[in-house]
Amino acid sequence: MKSLTGLSLLVCVAILLGVATPAAVAAHRMSSSTQAGVQASKPSKMLLPRAESISPSKPAVSAPSVATMAASSTSASEATLKEIVSANNTPTKYWFTFGTSKKSLTSATAKAAALPGTSAVTAKVKGLKPKTTYYFQFYASNAEGTTSAGIQSVTTGEAVPTLAQSSAVATSSLTASLTQ
């Protein structure tokens, strides 16, 4: 019966404890013959862990990231706000706050769900005052945190004058006279 050397015993214990598989140990040993014809094994410096203990990595999740785009106003009473949001592998909601002062962005759009990747988002804000500068800020939020973009501004256009409609009064008795 063969006796186990210290290194062979260590390899057997590693296999029994599940730290290495026999195939992993065999793949990392190099065999050579000694002059007397006895097989000797030289282990490598590292044993591989069992394949079952390696789990695939999940995509990293983090607070959303945002990038600022320009806003525009196409009329005296509405503006289109645009931003770019990256959801960073987790469900994300976004919204805009706005107002007529940088210090009081008290109105807000409804929250909307962002797509999983990176996407451009827009919001139309209606009911604004003509020839007025509005300030807005974009927010995106998920379970990892909330991110905001810098404060931007947009100025609405001038109100288009409207003509009042009047009804003509018809008279049935018109007279005309010619003089020479």
What's the topology here?
Layout: H1 6-17, H2 22-27, E1 29-33, E2 39-43, E3 65-68, E4 78-86, E5 93-99, E6 107-108, E7 112-113, E8 118-126, E9 133-142, E10 145-148, E11 152-155
Antiparallel strand pairs: 1-2, 3-4, 4-8, 5-6, 5-7, 5-9, 9-10, 9-11
Word description of this protein:
It is a single chain. By secondary structure, this protein is mainly beta. The chain has 2 domains: 6-51, no CATH class; 65-155, Immunoglobulins (Immunoglobulin-like, Sandwich), CATH 2.60.40.10. 10% of the residues lie in helices and 34% in strands. The protein contains 2 helices and 11 strands, in the order ααβββββββββββ. The longest helix is centred in the first third of the chain and has 12 residues, at 6-17.
What's the quick description here?
Helix content is 10%, strand content 34%.
In round numbers, the mean pLDDT is: 74
**Total individual domains:** 2
Q: Strand pairing plus helix content: what structural class?
A: mainly beta
Strand portion: 25-35%
- The helix count comes to 2
Number of strands: 11
**Gross morphology:** elongated
| CATH level-1 class of the largest domain | Mainly Beta
Keywords:
180 residues, Immunoglobulin-like, six-stranded antiparallel β-sheet, mainly beta, 10% helix, three-stranded antiparallel β-sheet, elongated
